[in-house]
Automatic annotation (TrEMBL):
This is YegS/DAGK C-terminal domain-containing protein. It comes from the Bacteria. InterPro entries: NAD/diacylglycerol_kinase_sf (IPR016064), YegS/DAGK_C (IPR045540). Residues 7-123 form the YegS/DAGK C-terminal domain.
Length: 128
């Protein structure tokens, strides 16, 4: 049976603390994450929220059942997933772990992320 490593993580989400042994934490702000177009079906570009999926230990049937949940947009209801929405998150661990940011190795934990609404101004040329 294939079993993936899990890591002790502490996530602080807008003041609420979640401690989990997790295989993976996925954070996104739109419906599309990692090429899965409907991973967060209720996400809005301008809602000011991060959508966080804490994926716990996966083995056997849990691993097999994760894919349909991922493809259907029901990942947040999977029994091995903790889901939360937040404006800010701090992730720490007792182990030395590095973030993976869009496929690239990131800084070591702790990792602190915050949504900064209206920090990017877009100029759009009107076309007649």
């Amino acid at each position: 049976m294939v079993k993936h490593n899990v890591y002790p993580l502490r996530l602080t989400l807008d003041g609420e603390v979640i401690e989990e042994e997790a295989f993976l934490v996925v954070i996104g702000m739109t419906q599309s994450i990692a090429g899965f177009e409907n991973m967060v079906v209720d996400a809005e570009l301008d809602d000011g929220l991060m959508h966080i999926f804490i994926i716990k230990e996966l083995a056997g049937v849990d691993m097999v059942s994760l894919l349909p949940a991922l493809l259907s947009g029901d990942l947040k209801t999977h029994r091995q997933v903790t889901y939360a929405k937040t404006k800010g998150v701090r992730i720490t661990s007792t182990e030395i772990l590095h973030a993976n940011i869009d496929g690239d190795k990131g800084d070591p934990l702790p990792l602190e992320l915050q949504v900064l609404p209206q920090h990017i101004r877009l100029l759009v040329n009107s076309v007649i």
